[in-house]
Amino acid sequence: MKLNDLSSYWMPFTVNRQFKAAPRMIVGAQGMYFQTDDGREILDGTAGLWCSNAGHGQPRIVEAIQQQAAKLDYAPPFQMGSPAQFELANRLVDLAPEGFGQVFYCNSGSEAVETALKTALAWQRARGEGTRTRLVGRERGYHGINFGGISVGGIVGNRAMFGALLAGVDHLRHTHDPQRNLFTQGVPEHGADLADDLERLVQLHGAQTIAACIVEPIACSTGVLVPPRGYLERLRSICDRHGILLIFDEVITGFGRLGTPFAAQRFGVTPDIITMAKGLTNGTVPMGGILVREGIYETICAAAAEGAVELPHGYTYSGHPLACAAALASLDVYREEGLFERAAGLEPLWQEAVHSLRGLAPIVDIRNLGLIAGIELEAGPNGPGTRAFEIYRRCWEEGVLIRVTGDIIALSPPLIIEEGQVAHIVDTLRRIIAQVD
Ligand SMILES: Cc1ncc(COP(=O)(O)O)c(C=O)c1O
């Protein structure tokens, strides 16, 4: 076997043949930078994959993981516990908006979504509303890649290859309204009425068939769609009116990305279930989870027979000791370094910096909130996505990591980013966007 043989590894969400012809290899990471195998430093404009909120190689988190591995490497999560699981759950409930009661652990954002959807169905059944089996997602939504997630998700490329998906799923319209909201700084003004689509689905299917509605507070993976002012409030009130659980998929927006612990606090709208992952452990050890509002756990427990497992759901690695240690240390770092507040403080500068790109020929829209930005380009002469990918490739060569989805550049740097690094990312983009056909 040759050490540099790249053929055996089937890479996820990657153009494998293209990558293997011209690999990009990361061998280290520290603070705001990745190190490549050819000895270059790459400024991280994406917090890895929206997850390394406190930057890389954070000493306190590294040490917590090392110590935990030496002390307790694994404990079975069914019918037994380890103290860090309980401590972490208490800390997460404290971080959540008022009124949340319990945390359930899994290992990723995709699993958090499955867990949320199953919990919603179980709750409806436990409270005597077993006819509520329908799940509502949204066009352009991304909820991971498991069957439940792609069923409620709304990105065609992630769904089209995989058969009939879950039955009984419907979708709201997405909230992108280029006619009215182009180049909005922060929350767009127009489109709260798009939430009335849920009312339409209630009229179509009957409220008594709908268990839950799941949305990302900001649809990030599709290219950063910030919800119009009043939209989430309106969804909340339609859900309340019709007994529908509202799930916020906060896998990206959790842990300070919008300057608050969760997007729910930033928007002042409280869902019934929050999914989380990524920033939960600062991306260091795989972990996901859901937070449920008070009453959900109690109702499901009360409906179970004495001695029965109340929710037949869980993973071998639910509440894994290394993940719990990493999460506890991450929460310490976020709090002690004031990173959520730091993100809030940087937001105006970030907004001004990214919007300074307006006017460059191929840019058709710029959107932002918190430390997130989406820069949408006109498709290049070689077809959809090609111009953005070429910009991505050149940024990598010039030492800046960005993310692209179709013709949209998405930026989400670690919350420790310095002003000069914001300028460096934006100046690099300005130069490269102007060069690429
Ligand atoms: C909103 C949302 N939900 C779920 C997921 C899936 O998370 P994972 O890749 O950890 O399964 C993602 C990943 O980006 C996400 O953005």
Automatic annotation (TrEMBL):
MF terms in GO: transaminase activity
Cofactor requirements of the protein: pyridoxal 5'-phosphate
Stored PROSITE patterns: AA_TRANSFER_CLASS_3 (PS00600)
CDD domains assigned to the protein according to its UniProt record, in alphabetical order: OAT_like
Keywords: Aminotransferase, Pyridoxal phosphate, Transferase
Keyword Transferase included in the entry's annotation: yes
The keyword Transferase belongs to this UniProt entry's keyword annotation: yes
InterPro entries associated with the record: Aminotrans_3, Aminotrans_3_PPA_site, PyrdxlP-dep_Trfase, PyrdxlP-dep_Trfase_major, PyrdxlP-dep_Trfase_small
Record family assignment: Belongs to the class-III pyridoxal-phosphate-dependent aminotransferase family.
Name of the protein described by the UniProt record: Aspartate aminotransferase family protein
Lineage of origin: Bacteria, Pseudomonadati, Pseudomonadota, Alphaproteobacteria, Sphingomonadales
